[in-house]
Amino acid sequence: MKKTSQKPKTRKSISKRFKITKNGKVMRRRTGQMHYRAKMNGDERRTLRRFVEMSPEESKKIKKSLTY
User: Fold this and answer.
1) Rounded distance, CA 28 to CA 39, Å?
2) What is the C-alpha separation between 47 and 54, in angstroms, rounded?
3) What's this model's pTM, rounded to 2 decimal places?
4) Cα–Cα distance between 25 and 40 in angstroms, integer?
5) What gap in Å lies between CA 58 and CA 7, rounded to an integer?
6) Which of 12, 17, 36, 53 is 20 to 30 Å from 3 by CA-CA measure?
7) 17 and 29 in contact (C-beta within 8 Å)?
8) Are 19 and 51 in contact (CB under 8 A)?
9) 26 in Cβ contact with 54 (< 8 Å)
10) Could you report the per-residue pLDDT of 14-64, keeping only the tens digit for each?
11) Alpha helices, DSSP H only, in the chain?
12) Where do the domains of the chain lie, and which CATH numbers do they carry?
């Protein structure tokens, strides 16, 4: 059998959860959006919609698994 080198595959679950900006920041969604939202006021719900920048240590791991 002939052995071929393959490109490393992108982890699709991570690519759906995180976004990388033009400057290389890794952004994630805020937690607490699935349920118990009736108790929150509108300001709290709106702030949960925004994306948050991840820490440099965690963003290194995510960039490594998002090779392409």
Assistant:
1) 24
2) 16
3) 0.73
4) 29
5) 23
6) 12
7) yes
8) yes
9) yes
10) 999 999 999 999 999 999 888 888 999 999 999 999 999 999 999 999 998
11) 12-17, 42-49, 56-65
12) 12-65 (4.10.410.60)
